[in-house]
Amino acid sequence: MAEQSKHSADKSDQQFDIVVIGGGMAGLAFTAALADSAVSILVVDRLSQPAPSEWPESFDPRVSALSLASENLLKHVGAWPLMASQRVSPYQKMHVWDGEGTGQVDFANTEVETEHLGHIVENRVTQWALYQKVLNQENATFVTASLANLRQGIGGWQVTLDNGEQYHPDLLVGADGAQSQVRNKAGFQVRAWPYEHTAIVTTVKTSLPHEGVARQIFLETGPLAFLPLQGSVNSGDGTDQHYCSIVWSLQADTAQEIEALGDRDFKQRLGAAFEHSLGDIVETDLRYSFPLIQRHCTHYIQPGLALIGDAAHTIHPLAGQGINLGFLDAAVLAEEVASSVAKGLNPGQRLGLRRYERRRKSHNLLTMGAMEGFKRAFEPLNWLLTMARNEGMNQFNRHYLAKRQVVSHAMGLAGDLPKIVKNG
Ligand SMILES: Cc1cc2nc3c(=O)[nH]c(=O)nc-3n(C[C@H](O)[C@H](O)[C@H](O)COP(=O)(O)OP(=O)(O)OC[C@H]3O[C@@H](n4cnc5c(N)ncnc54)[C@H](O)[C@@H]3O)c2cc1C
Question: Which of 82, 136, 287, 320 has the largest CB neighbor count within 10 A?
Answer without folding.
Answer: 320
